[in-house]
Amino acid sequence: MRIKIITSERIKNKFAGEAIKEYTKRLTRYCKVKLSATNNIAKEIKGNTYLIKISSNGKMLTSEELAEKISSLGVRGNSHITFVYDNEHHIEDADFNLKISDMDIASDLLLIILYEQIYRAYRIINNEPYHK
Amino acid sequence: MRIKIITSERIKNKFAGEAIKEYTKRLTRYCKVKLSATNNIAKEIKGNTYLIKISSNGKMLTSEELAEKISSLGVRGNSHITFVYDNEHHIEDADFNLKISDMDIASDLLLIILYEQIYRAYRIINNEPYHK
């Protein structure tokens, strides 16, 4: 599985860069993750990808439900998932709109949560204990 | 206002320590925040505090609602708030049970989110733009 995370926000805090590096390292066992911080989100989205948009109007999932979604996409032959954090509303259509919390959370932190949830999803899919 | 954050989990990732340091620094303008990682949570809870427990069975609030809660506690003369992340369920009763997300989120990350939400609350209370 290839996972691309696209954000319209640059990373602002040093700790966020380090957290993303840490989760990227842990995820190498399970999938390829690529982060793209860009002003041109549409250009970064490949046509054949399953597109999940992080949105305050989206649907909340449990970690198990996100794991199930990632797993079933693989089974159905979708080998590419794109998560978009698009604060400036360039992207209208997505295959799924995902809400993380009712709270407004800083973009740096949302990115870390997303990485952590993808990592957690693969631990769930593989029946592995969660390594904190 | 004095805010105490008590957690039954030690901080596991370096980035989390750095994030907490960063938000603690930003919060010095608004309140005193003290973090306590302990196995004896009950001992750390002062009797006169307003107790908010982070709980997956709790109620979700928006950032504005949390700001309103913190603000109204101050007006009512509560000068002390305690947030508890009690993964081992030592604490039965709290004044409020707060759910952050339907997702299971690593304790390190929950702590960072909590700090960020307290900082965000004070920016909202003081009508200040949010500094990312």
Keyword list:
homodimer, 132 residues, alpha/beta, Alpha/beta knot, 5-stranded parallel beta sheet, 5 strands, 38% helix, globular
Describe it for me?
The structure is a homodimer of 132-residue chains. Chain A has 132 residues and is α/β, with parallel strands linked by helices. Chain A has one domain (2-125): SPOUT methyltransferase, trefoil knot domain (Alpha/beta knot, 3-Layer(aba) Sandwich). Chain A is 38% helix and 25% strand. Chain A is built from 4 helices and 5 strands. Chain A has helices spanning 14-27, 41-44, 63-75, 107-125, and strands at 2-7, 32-37, 50-60, 80-85, 96-99. The first copy, chain A, has a 5-stranded parallel beta sheet with strand order 2-1-4-3-5. In chain A, β1, α1 and β2 (32-37) form a beta-alpha-beta unit. The longest helix of chain A is centred in the last third of the chain and has 19 residues, at 107-125. The radius of gyration of chain A is 14 Å and the shape is globular. The relative contact order of chain A is 0.27. Chain A binds chain B through residues 9, 12-16, 18-19, 22, 60-63, 66, 100-109, 112-113, 116-117, 120, 130, 132, and chain B through 9, 12-16, 18-19, 22, 60-63, 66, 100-109, 112-113, 116-117, 120, 130, 132.
